[in-house]
Amino acid sequence: MRLLLIEDDDRIAGPLTEGLGRYGFTVDHVRTGAAGLAEPAAAPDLVLLDLGLPDMDGLDVCRGLRARSAVPIIMITARGEEADRIVGLELGADDYLAKPFGVRELIARIRAVTRRAGAPAYAPTGALVLEAEVRVPPARQSFSGGQALGPLAISRRTREVHLEGHEVALTPREFDLLAFLADDPGTVFSRQQIMDSVWDPHFFGPTKTLDAHVAALRRKLGDPGWITTARGVGFRLTVPGDHTEGAG
Ligand code: CA
Questions:
Q1: 163-194 pLDDT, tens per residue?
Q2: How far are the Cα atoms of 115, 220, 233 from residue 225, in angstroms, in the given order?
Q3: What predicted TM-score, i.e. pTM, was given to this entire model?
Q4: C-alpha span between 143 and 149 (Å, rounded)
Q5: CA-angle at 182, arms to 16 and 113, nearest 5°
Q6: For 194-204, what is each residue's pLDDT tens digit?
Q7: Residue 48 DSSP SS3
């Protein structure tokens, strides 16, 4: 899937292009409204439009794009641009995202918008299929004995987590982190992948906050074994009791 990113701030465009690239998107990046309105070498499947551009009002870019094409448009707005968002939607933009946002959130919006637009639903990678419900199987082949493991149910629709039938109260960020890891139980996600997806694509600060959230999740799930550390790499979701590989 080819995206046209119209964004003048390289501190946002750079990590965003890289993050989306990791999930299989091709990103054509331009820095001005004029370049965004120029006839593209390859027609984009979707446009990501920053409203704060140096050469012209992003809303005029939106109007210009919509005048000649039905391409889905997602606006990228700064805080406090609520009036612009409303006008943009009236001008034909399909959705908006307020900065800061994560790559994962953006991909979810892209999928929703392209689905609404009648394009075939797009799943960038197997690891990122956003299903309404993910259930970690209580016993997998690698778990010897198939002991009674509390089933962990994560509902993306209601953003609720149940462990053995009891609701686990999580903060929004803890939920996002758990849901991200649960996309592919057993797979190690790098710290960078997690930061990009659950936090911001342009998060360059210390990643200690990730460790704090992992610790909180382990505590709330009642067993540190739910999230194992791959030293020097990242984290993965596992069912407690599986000690075949180094838990930490
Ligand atoms: Ca800008």
A1: 888 889 888 888 889 988 888 788 888 888 88
A2: 37, 12, 17
A3: 0.51
A4: 10
A5: 45
A6: 887 887 666 55
A7: strand
Q: What is the C-alpha separation between 92 and 82, in angstroms, rounded? A: 16
87 confidence band (pLDDT: 50, 70, 90): confident
Rounded to the nearest whole angstrom, what is the distance from the C-alpha of residue 24 to the centroid of ligand 1? 25
Which strands make up the sheet holding 166-168, listed edge to edge?
133-136, 152-155, 160-163, 166-168
Q: How many CB atoms lie within 10 A of CB 97?
A: 18
CB atoms within 10 A of CB 59: 20
- The alpha carbon of 15 and the centre of ligand 1 are apart by a number of angstroms equal to 15
* Ligand 1: centre distance to CA 61 (Å): 13
Tell me how far the alpha carbon of residue 245 lies from the centroid of ligand 1, in angstroms: 46
Gap from CA of 192 to ligand 1 centroid (Å): 24
Q: Pinpoint the residues of the chain covered by CATH 1.10.10.10.
A: 133-237
Q: Delimit the CATH 3.40.50.2300 region(s) of the chain.
A: 2-116
**50 alpha carbon – ligand 1 mean position (Å):** 6
CATH number of 133-237: 1.10.10.10
Q: Domain 2-116, CATH 3.40.50.2300 — does that match?
A: yes
Distance 62 CA to ligand 1 centre (A): 14
Residue 183 DSSP label: T
How many Å lie between the centroid of ligand 1 and the Cα of residue 9? 5
Question: Using CA atoms, how far apart are residues 138 and 127, in angstroms rounded to an integer?
Answer: 20
Most confident listed range (58-62, 75-79, 127-131, 180-184): 58-62
Distance in Å, CA 76 to ligand 1 centroid: 9
CA of 58 to the centre of ligand 1 (A): 9
